[in-house]
Write a structure and sequence with these properties.
Layout: H1 5-13, H2 18-24, H3 29-37, H4 43-56, H5 59-68, H6 74-85, H7 93-99, H8 106-119, H9 125-132, H10 138-150, H11 154-165, H12 172-182, E1 200-204, E2 211-214, H13 215-225, H14 242-253
Helix pairs in contact: 1-2, 1-3, 2-4, 4-5, 4-6, 5-6, 6-8, 8-10, 9-10, 10-11, 10-12, 12-13, 13-14
């Protein structure tokens, strides 16, 4: 028996997680109906709707989620962008870039830029650059830059490498995330400068044992995450001993530019 879209929406109004499994089987009837009633839903229900739309995973669900990235509630907009990124058939790059300048939340624009980098092609670089040219938020612009690098942008890669080399403890985690996202092993060579940097970045372990991961430790761990062999093989982010740092340095120096 087909699942009734109106019943799923009632579950969403009641914040009943049964809506998720039901939405998966409801076809495009569900996103079409949820689109109609969105203005009547509370922010919490709208946030729940983004997850239900992600499980629905139809082209119409993608369309609704793209519109929801402009929700007046920042949390709902951010969840919609995240859910959109999980879709197997997200909107076309042209549709994504068309809405980016109109999204108020920088985190939403960052997520959409990253989605463009994942689903786009090198020929989309020109349009991505046009949108980035008017980007006002520094961190969102950096995610857009990483998207351009992933698509093969040479000027963006040069700027990205400079940014990696000049990273600080405050920016290190974001930069490592962008390196992994860009999926270009040659960019890892810019981490060579980090290997001599013992500035602390983040806490490791419990409050009982205050141990801080350093810039050099993040360089080792990110290099490992990108598939570059390091010995001994790291099993987690930790405070690495000098021999491991030296091994990572040799591995990075051996990478092609």
């Amino acid at each position: 028996m087909p699942i009734n879209a109106e019943e799923i929406i009632q579950w969403i109004r009641r914040e009943d997680p049964a809506a998720y499994a039901a939405a998966r089987e409801a076809g495009e009837a569900f996103p079409k109906e949820i689109e109609r009633v969105l203005p009547t839903l509370s922010p919490t229900s709208r946030e729940m709707a983004t997850h239900a739309l992600a499980t629905n995973n139809t082209p119409w669900a993608s369309r609704v989620l793209l519109n929801m990235t402009g929700d007046q509630e920042p949390q709902v907009a951010a969840e919609a962008a995240s859910a959109l990124s999980a879709m197997s058939k997200p909107p076309a790059v042209a549709e994504l870039l068309a809405v980016v300048p109109h999204r108020q939340e920088p985190v939403v624009r960052s997520t959409l830029y990253r989605l463009v980098g994942r689903v786009g092609k090198p020929e989309d670089l020109r349009d991505l650059r046009s949108v980035l040219a008017i980007e006002k938020d520094e961190e969102a612009g950096e995610d857009g830059q990483a998207a351009a690098v992933r698509l093969g942008g040479a000027p963006e890669k040069t700027a990205f490498l400079t940014r990696i080399r000049g990273a600080t403890p405050d920016s290190a985690l974001r930069v490592c995330s962008q390196i992994r996202y860009a999926e270009q092993k040659s960019a890892l060579k810019a981490l060579l400068l980090w290997l001599g940097n013992s500035q602390e970045v983040m806490r490791l372990g419990s409050d009982r044992s205050i141990r801080m991961a350093r810039m050099c430790d993040l360089a080792v761990w990110t290099t490992h995450q990108m598939g570059v062999p390091i010995h001994p093989v790291p099993s987690s982010l930790e405070i690495f001993p000098l021999p491991t740092l030296d091994n990572a340095r040799e591995a990075l120096q051996a990478l092609r530019d």
